[in-house]
Amino acid sequence: MRPVGLFTLLALSACGPADSTTGCKEKFISGDLVITEVFADFQAPSGGTGTDDGKEWFEIYNNTERPVSLKGLTILHSRPDDSKPQTHTMTEVTVAPGQYFTLGNATSDLVPAYVDYGYSADLGSFYNSDGGKLVLECGDNQIDSAIYDTVVSGHSRELTDAAAPDYTLNDDQTNWCEGETTEFESGNFGTPGAENDCQPVVVGACSDGGVMRATVPPSVGDLVITEIMPKPKSVSTTLGQWFEIKALVDVDLNGIGLDRANDNNVKPEIIAQTDCLHMAAGTYATFARNTDMTMNGGVTAIGSFAFSLTPTSTPDVQLVYGADVIDAVTWTTSTSGASLSLSPLATDAASNDDPANFCNGSVLYNGMDLGSPGMANGACPVVVQPGQCLANGTPRAIVKPAAGQLVIDEFMANPSGTDGTKEWFEITNTGAAAFDLNGLTLVGGTATTGNAITANECKSVAAGGYGLFARTSDPAANGGLPAVDATFSFVINNTNFALSVLDGAAVLDKIAWTTPTQVDGVALQLQPTTIDSTSNDNANVSNTTNYCKASAGQNYGTVATNYGTPGAVNVCM
To answer: Which of 26, 39, 102, 274 is least surrounded, with the fewest CB atoms within 10 Å of its CB?
Structure first.
């Protein structure tokens, strides 16, 4: 137990010593009793519910060298500005010299084992946000007062144990800290009835292996929020929500605030600890609603936060340091059981402002939830915008064929045996530059709609190259065709039919015929010397000026009696 005495090192504003007999059985002077600890918000067990009823308490210290009676002592509880005051007058109870004495919001017959005295509901509920104030008075004379602030659920506010308890020491909020070491009830930390066990953080300094040094604070953009889990499936949101950050430079997290911009001006939750919480450049760290891996869905977290990532509107999360917002992320929607994962190609504090740079997590980190807490994110699927296609994984604008550049130059309307899925037709690029097939539509007969080519990958046709369309891309079913660029669902009739390729409503090319190819398995080819979008209009077999039949030497694929040059230059014999 620390020696009894007044702490006079800090020149802080406080009441000077004053005799008091009015209202109290005992003769007190200011500082004889010291408020040393406040527990304002009880943390219910995992999966449990409940209120703070009977679980709130505060602690006073007998700073005299004699046993004292507290009979007649008035306790006043209010907001820090003295508004909303409520009082309780103590009944007969004796506190030994140097004793830490605990008072709780329960009746005397229902107080927990760690509470020495119950004041019932006389003081009202302690304030979990914006703090409150406790005052000890005898008549008009104040024995001690203290403000409690920055309440964290399940943790008391403790006066430092770096010096003996003193009524001037507790006037300064920098001399208070969060109880983290001693668990007085499951999931709840503090030292009711005993010497406190914490020392406040020295702003701007931290202990690095036992040696105090200056912290390395972050600048704007040095830390990047890279992943958020708003809706876990394996556990409740109050246990399983988390978010991840990445350090772009070496930095200490001491003094960083975890916050929401849209939380009705609730103060940031400051990372306040004595030991240096260092992150090396390129490393990741995770903060969770609960740091117990057995409760939070298997997430290794370096710290916790109390606010929700699924508020009723405008979800966001941000990191602050002093007045600076180091990084912030907002989102509008999220998927149950999947994190919002920032693309590794967009890991900076500007790129993560764009929701398009996030995608659903894809790694199963427990039995139900997808994400990669504390690790590098996997690549996001590339989002292809309208009018774009992917060229080697990179989006670019689709290149449309110029007028007359796309020409239908060969078709197979009557393959050997059963036509089924062996029909096909071919186009060629007669221009000097490549174009893409993406977004074009294949139409058969007199239909007004057809089969759109909707591939994400760019289906480019080089100058002088060919595009091949078939009923199916499966070589086992299409007669062994070479690689097919797109498929169509219509049947190519042998007579009275037409083939068209459209760009929207615009017809890029069209051929039609009334009479069939007379021999099964023979494709009709446009003469190599007349490949243009006018010469191919009349695709009757009798148009030998512009067309020829594939010859016996031009067999292809797996059916020996199918002839043509699909995907290759026409050769009219």
So the answer is: 274
